[in-house]
Amino acid sequence: MLSLTTAAEDLDRLYPWLEAEAAIVPKPIRHAMHVAAEEAVVNAAKHAFAPGERGRISVTLDIASGSATLVIEDTGAAFDPVAAPVPERPAALEPGGLGLILLRHYCHDIRYERAGDRNRLILRFPL
Amino acid sequence: MPIVIIELEDGVTKVVISGRVDIAGARELEMPMAVVAGSRRAVVVDLSGVEFMASLGLRGIVVSAKSIFSKRGKIVLLAPRPEVREVITTTGIDDLIPIFHDEAEAIAAVI
Hints:
Shape of chain B: globular
Structural class of chain A: alpha+beta
Largest sheet of chain B: 5 strands, mixed
Shape of chain A: globular
Low-confidence stretches of chain B: none
CATH class of chain A: Alpha Beta
Distance between the termini of chain A: 21 Å
Number of helices of chain B: 4
Structural class of chain B: alpha/beta
Strand content of chain A: 25-35%
Helix content of chain A: 25-40%
Number of strands of chain A: 5
Oligomer: heterodimer
Order of helices and strands of chain B: EEHEHEHEH
Helix content of chain B: 40-55%
CATH topology of chain A: Heat Shock Protein 90
Distance between the termini of chain B: 28 Å
CATH architecture of chain A: 2-Layer Sandwich
CATH architecture of chain B: 2-Layer Sandwich
Largest sheet of chain A: 5 strands, antiparallel
Number of domains of chain A: 1
CATH topology of chain B: Transcription Regulator spoIIAA
Mean pLDDT of chain B: 96
CATH superfamily of chain A: Histidine kinase-like ATPase, C-terminal domain
Number of strands of chain B: 5
Low-confidence stretches of chain A: none
């Protein structure tokens, strides 16, 4: 399990951790996992915590025979990126919303749960 | 995540980004891109050496592009690898910041 605080430098550990943990996953799927995981973690750090609040985010990876599953949990305010509205195509150059488009493009099996005081996002990738 | 800024002829600036534009890479990119966006009006961003880019890196380019467009400047992207190109086209950002695969065409598009 990768345990992060929302400090910017701490989030830097996501890519190297996932690259090592998912080394046996075929490259195109690993790429999709990296894009989706970055968005999920950055989203959690941005939306779930008040500015200046130091929150905690955990990421776990479970590789089974037919799928790889990433679970991202945070202790912040409830935020459901699955229910959040996503613009189809950007009508103007607005940086917000890009990540949600990418999250849904790269992962087709996304579930959100509020588990006690935690947001839990479950991203499943068929292998 | 190296970034190299090259001044070409006709006032064109080429920004060559390479390596991994992950969360750490996107942060490293922020300051040099802000400097270029704040001071240049014809910018070619060479992505051919970028191995990975997701939403944070793309957001950084969009923020720079907004600044350049506000000065009636032009910015284009050059030669992203297929994985990086897919990230860009999925969001539709290429409708606003065009992608070129030939450097001469990219330069001609910003002059």
